Amino acid sequence: MTSAPASAAGVCVRVPAKVNVELRVGPPRADGFHPVATVYQAVSLYDTVWVTPAADWSVELSGRTTSGVPADDSNLAVRAAMELAKAAGVRERAVVHIGKEIPVAGGMAGGSADAAAALVACNRLWGLDWGIERLEPIAARLGSDIPFLLHGGTALGSGRGEQVVPALTRGTYHWVFALSHGGLSTPAVYAECDRLRGSSLVPDPQPSPQLLSALRSGDVVGVAALLANDLQAAAVSLHPGLGEVLDAGLRFGALGGIVSGSGPTIAFLAAGHEAALDLAVALTASGTAADVRRAVGPTVGAHVDVVAGA
Length: 310
Ligand code: ATP
Known about the structure:
Blueprint: E1 10-25, E2 36-54, E3 58-63, H1 76-88, E4 93-100, H2 110-125, H3 132-142, H4 146-151, E5 154-158, E6 163-166, E7 173-179, H5 186-197, H6 209-217, H7 220-225, E8 228-229, H8 232-238, H9 241-251, E9 256-259, E10 266-270, H10 273-286, E11 291-297, E12 303-308
């Protein structure tokens, strides 16, 4: 459900979280970023971002997961709105109200989602009518996952993850997410990955052709068997309780489980709707996770939900 700010004039955009069905990470590049080959999927956990015309920029927060989200100009959604204003030569300002449901610092790209939503919302609010291809360079400058959240669906990400090509999939994937107490910093997880790898030779990251074929044919068992995340060992090393959560989910009937992105959220793939319900109930009852959420993928990227008059 869309949570409206006090003044509901303006534009509301709904934006999903993401899971990395596969995340392959290469050795760090000269600019410090790691090249990745990833298969993103947008899942039905949504934040909403309302933008309302105002005399100055500000951020308002509501919803389930606001702890740790900055309420000043460092918020990625406001930064995205400001960057779009600059790029488009717009002098307007806005209140950016974020209804937060996506876990924070959980490896589900919540901040990136809000930034993508702010771009789409301001694009509409200011009547720019820019296509995704014109918003994408701004998105990519602000964060590697933001371009994907403009697209949604299932997609291959390369470069730092910012180069996105849609991937064909069949069927609906039923995910159960086990949230942890506390988050993990994405740069810290990449640094730990480098530390664990030491001087071993790391190949250029490539997506698995078998996984892409399983996604194309809607083979959920095949997809579950091929879930892969090169950051998993690093996330588990920094957050040792995650191994226990993974074991519990598999014991309770998940077809497969993986650390989501840089963690610490664990994403389990279930055989269908009923199986996902059963798994969520069992995980909740076991007390191994701080919170448990169900979602389906793929779903659409950032999209206008409401346009309201003053
Ligand atoms: P990713 O998977 O893209 O690495 P994440 O899901 O692990 O990201 P986020 O929820 O995006 O993590 O938050 C990472 C940090 O970004 C937060 O700790 C917070 O300080 C900062 N941040 C800035 N803007 C936002 C926002 N709108 N929502 C959440 N966090 C934000």
